[in-house]
Amino acid sequence: MDSDSVKRSVMQQVLQEANMANARVLIEKLQEHCFEKCVPKPGSSLSSGETTCMTSCMEKYMSAWNQVNHAYINRIKQESMKGNNSL
């Protein structure tokens, strides 16, 4: 394995680990915001109202999460291009 292959492999592994960490944070935030909002008194199962609330809340939260991530990635790309242009 040459050094470029090793570098690509390490970068891929780091990216996968970052994606997993990002997914864990998203799940924690969904639980924090949606479950606590939609299920005030947990029981053995969710009512239809709780299920509807959870679905709606999760869709909204994930949409907002994706918009923020997209904006963040675009900002990083812009900053990276500025840095490359100044060389």
Automatic annotation (TrEMBL):
Keyword Metal-binding: yes
Entry keyword Repressor: no
GO process terms (BP): protein insertion into mitochondrial inner membrane; protein transport
Molecular-function GO terms, alphabetical: metal ion binding
Domain of life, per lineage: Eukaryota
Tim10-like domain sequence ranges: 12-73
GO cellular component: mitochondrial inner membrane; mitochondrial intermembrane space chaperone complex
Pfam families in alphabetical order: zf-Tim10_DDP (PF02953)
Location(s), subcellular: Mitochondrion inner membrane
Keyword terms, alphabetized: Chaperone, Disulfide bond, Membrane, Metal-binding, Mitochondrion, Mitochondrion inner membrane, Protein transport, Translocation, Transport, Zinc
UniProt topology in membrane: Peripheral membrane protein
Family per similarity comment: Belongs to the small Tim family.
Subunit structure: Heterohexamer; composed of 3 copies of TIM8 and 3 copies of TIM13, named soluble 70 kDa complex. Associates with the TIM22 complex, whose core is composed of TIM22 and TIM54. Interacts with the transmembrane regions of multi-pass transmembrane proteins in transit.
Job of this protein: Mitochondrial intermembrane chaperone that participates in the import and insertion of some multi-pass transmembrane proteins into the mitochondrial inner membrane. Also required for the transfer of beta-barrel precursors from the TOM complex to the sorting and assembly machinery (SAM complex) of the outer membrane. Acts as a chaperone-like protein that protects the hydrophobic precursors from aggregation and guide them through the mitochondrial intermembrane space.
Comment block on domains: The twin CX3C motif contains 4 conserved Cys residues that form 2 disulfide bonds in the mitochondrial intermembrane space.
Entry protein name: Mitochondrial import inner membrane translocase subunit
Species of the source: Colletotrichum navitas
